[in-house]
From TrEMBL:
InterPro entries: HTH-type_LysR_regulators (IPR050950), LysR_HTH_N (IPR000847), LysR_subst-bd (IPR005119), WH-like_DNA-bd_sf (IPR036388), WH_DNA-bd_sf (IPR036390). Belongs to the LysR transcriptional regulatory family. Transmembrane segments: none annotated. This is LysR family transcriptional regulator. Residues 1-54 form the HTH lysR-type domain. Keywords: DNA-binding, Transcription, Transcription regulation. The lineage of its organism: Bacteria, Pseudomonadati, Pseudomonadota, Alphaproteobacteria, Hyphomicrobiales. PROSITE patterns: HTH_LYSR (PS50931).
Length: 294
């Protein structure tokens, strides 16, 4: 089962063999034996497009992942130890990877120093696909489900769009910025689907004047750097953990009219057992969010 899950999660026999420290030939033989046991192919094998799960493979995958995690969880129960080890795979979208994830890692390093974590930073669509095939166990994003895959999700905190600007840029001594003040100014935004959708929905809703989106960037640190250099105003998701990372030279403003809130969530597949490591991470995220002043 471990071999099957490894191949499904990385989409490659060769890569899975390297991760499991075995040969490609030996791994292929184990998959062949597993397919013979279940009486049908688990993977489609096409050289032009690589491998993918068959219908039988898709049915088996959540059961196989749950079986492996349940076995590991039993081991933790028997050992009755609070000092977790092993590896937890978490996917995070760009804006949350640079803000929430470092705080989570710091907390887990204190409470479970032997726990290893692999953080995958991608767009939300790619992360959902990775979650679907077992490439990650938890997803930190603004998504809660997809048309074909319902996710189990827990809302962590609300966020809304705000404006960041270098303090050398004159926007007035006020806590908020009118959307009309953005007209004629260069703007930088985070170039991901959720941020774009929320921004353009907001601009339509308030009948805002045309905004000059001069820069679309993939990471929050780059967005902050552009703002700090006075090249543009930033329109970004604003929440306490994000504000904590802003340099002293940057001011943060509310938008007026106020945008709608949207929720950052931690998600997982509801048909797959969660590992002890994942449960601990979720609990630490709950505590982290409760401690913030919103």
């Amino acid at each position: 089962m471990e071999v099957f899950v490894a191949v499904a999660s990385v989409g490659s026999f060769t890569v899975a063999a390297k991760e499991l420290n075995t040969s490609r030939t030996a791994l292929g033989a184990m998959i062949d034996a597993l397919e013979e046991t279940f009486g049908g192919q688990l993977f489609n094998r096409k050289r032009s497009v690589g491998i993918s799960l068959t219908t039988n493979g898709e049915r088996l995958l959540p059961l196989a992942i749950s079986l492996l995690r349940d076995a590991e969880n039993i081991g933790h129960e028997i050992a009755n130890t609070q000092d977790l080890s092993g590896e937890l795979l978490i996917g995070a979208t760009v804006s949350l990877a640079g803000t929430v994830v470092p705080h989570l890692l710091e907390r887990l390093a204190k409470t479970h120093p032997r726990l290893r974590l692999r953080i995958v930073v991608r767009g939300v669509d790619e992360l959902i696909e990775m979650l679907n095939v077992g490439g990650i166990e938890l997803l930190l994003s603004y998504a809660t489900s997809t048309p074909v895959q319902k996710l189990a999700s827990e809302a962590l905190f609300g966020t809304k769009l705000g404006v960041i600007a270098a303090k050398t840029v004159s926007l007035g001594e006020v806590p908020d910025v009118s959307v009309n003040q953005l007209a004629g100014r260069s703007v930088v935004i985070l170039d991901n689907a959720v941020n774009r959708q929320n921004l353009f929905d907001y601009l339509r809703r308030v009948a805002a004047p045309e905004i000059d989106v001069k820069y679309r960037v993939g990471t929050l640190p780059l967005c902050i750097e552009i703002v700090q250099r006075g090249l543009a105003l930033g329109i970004v998701p604003v929440f306490p953990l994000m504000k904590d990372q802003l340099p002293e030279s940057i001011a943060c403003y509310d938008l007026n009219p106020a945008p709608s809130f949207y929720r950052a969530s931690i998600s997982w597949r509801p048909d797959v057992s969660l590992s002890f490591q994942a449960k601990v991470a979720i609990e630490e995220l709950r505590k982290l969010c409760l401690e913030q002043v919103w």
